[in-house]
Amino acid sequence: MITKTKKELQAQYKEKKIIGGVYAIKNTQKNKLLLEAATDLRGGKNRFEFAKKTGSCVNMKLQADWKECGADKFVFEVLEELEKAETLTPAEFKAEVDLLKEIWLEKLSSNDLY
Predict the structure, then answer these.
(1) Cross-strand pairs, 23
(2) What is the pTM of this model?
(3) Fewest beta carbons within 10 Å, which of 58, 78, 100, 109?
């Protein structure tokens, strides 16, 4: 078994790409979306999958439909990804992701959103 040193693990972590972006939690039965933005899309998807497995609602705005339709009627869809540039601070990256969400809000009809 090959084990990595602490230094190798730290270097590997620093090289990992950080992907943020905009995603939707879609109610496939009612065809409505909850639009969200995250600086870590993988974390957002993991939270969604955990909520589905445990039957707990992922967001209070969805709670009534989550209970009525069931968790299996909701899907996680990445709408647009944004890779964090090395030169950006976490706050700057968050601001870019939030701006991307605003652009998506303008693209979508408010009738389709939670």
Answers:
(1) 36, 78
(2) 0.85
(3) 109
Residue with tokens 């944004």: 82
Q: How far apart are CA 76 and CA 46, in angstroms?
A: 10
Largest Cα–Cα distance in the chain? 55
Q: Could you read off the pLDDT of 36-61 as tens digits, one per residue? A: 999 999 999 999 999 999 989 989 99
Considering the domain 18-112 in this protein, what is its CATH number? 3.40.1440.10
Are 27 and 73 a contacting pair, CB within 8 Å?
A: yes
Pairwise CA distance, residues 43 & 33, whole Å: 19
Q: Which neighbouring-strand residues pair with 32?
A: 27
DSSP 87: T
E strand or H helix that includes residue 81: strand 74-83
Per residue in 88-109, pLDDT tens? 999 999 999 999 999 999 999 8
